[in-house]
Amino acid sequence: MSNLVLVPGAWHGGWCWQRVVPALQEAGHRVYTPTLSGVSDRAHLISPSIGVETHVEDIVRLMETYDLDNVTLVGHSYAGQVITGVADRVPDRLARRVHLDGFIGDGRPAIDLLPDSVAHHYRESVESAGFGWLIPPRPLEKLGISEAADHQWLAPRLTPHPWKTYTDPLLLTGAYADVPGVFIECVAWMRVFESFARQASADGWETHELESGHEAMVTAPKALASVLLKIVG
User: Fold this and answer.
1) How confident is the model at residue 74 (pLDDT cuts 50, 70, 90)?
2) Would you call 77 a catalytic residue per the annotation?
3) Strands 161-162 and 94-100
4) What distances in angstroms separate CA 187 from CA 5, 192, 203, 214, 215, one per listed residue?
5) Of 127, 165, 175, nearest to 10 (Cα)?
6) 122: helix, strand or coil
7) pLDDT, tens digit, for every residue of 163-188?
8) Is the whole-model pTM more than 0.90?
């Protein structure tokens, strides 16, 4: 049995894993799906002071409070930054870190890790519709959502994300490098994170591809659960 902690990306809450969790639990694993501070069902905590270290602390506190070890820590999209920070803080609690179509942190701010065209869109949307400190949710079709039912489920639940989490550097000591990394790329989309997939492969990580858009936990939950079960053995 493993402990799986599934960390959502920007704009999402822990609810976004609902279609994946049952298969993991049926296989005998414990599954935790936290929501990061200031987002979705914790949007009432939003403030301009929430940065990436706030979100790292969210997950560290969860694991320490529940005394979790042998953790497979999964981070989707932006949360790749978060799980890198967590791995640096509490490497002994982790069996592995799984970057699901997301960042592999190296200390630089998340905004500096994005392709220039995507980073420009983020900066523009923060200034035009985010009051200078929020990232409005991206249009769902830009995230690979095409089914009306998926759109109707996601759209009301997504909330603006604190911009500081993308502009903060990620404070690292290097301890994260001792935690085995796994990369899952969603290849039926824009492949924004393709460079990280190549990096992971070059570094000898276990890698997987999913024929899915970016929101694999929504559009391909069975396939994602299958890959995660293969990863945890």
Assistant:
1) very high
2) yes
3) unpaired
4) 23, 9, 20, 8, 11
5) 165
6) helix
7) 999 999 999 999 999 999 999 999 99
8) yes
Q: What is the dihedral of CA 88, 79, 108, 49, to 10 degrees?
A: -100
How far is C-alpha 121 from the geometric centre of its chain's CA atoms? 20
pLDDT at 141: 85
The two tokens of residue 216 are 């694999």
Is the per-residue pLDDT at 139 higher than 90?
Answer: no
Average pLDDT rounded to a whole number, residues 107-114:
97
Angle of CA points 16, 22, 25, to nearest 5°: 120
The Cα–Cα gap between 224 and 29 comes to 15
User: Which residue out of 77, 125, 128, 195 is catalytically annotated?
Assistant: 77
Percent of the residues in the chain that have a pLDDT greater than 90, as a whole number: 94
Q: In what order do the strands lie in the sheet with 206-210?
A: 30-32, 3-7, 71-76, 94-100, 181-186, 206-210
| Site of tokens 């293969």 | 230
d(CA 148, CA 190): 20
Q: How far is CA 37 from CA 6, 10, 55, 132, 217, in A?
A: 15, 11, 6, 19, 21
Residue 3: partners with Cβ closer than 8 Å, 6 or more residues away: 29, 30, 32, 68, 69, 70, 71, 72
Structure tokens, 128: 């035009």
Question: Please, what is the Cα angle at 208 between 202 and 210, to 5 degrees?
Answer: 135
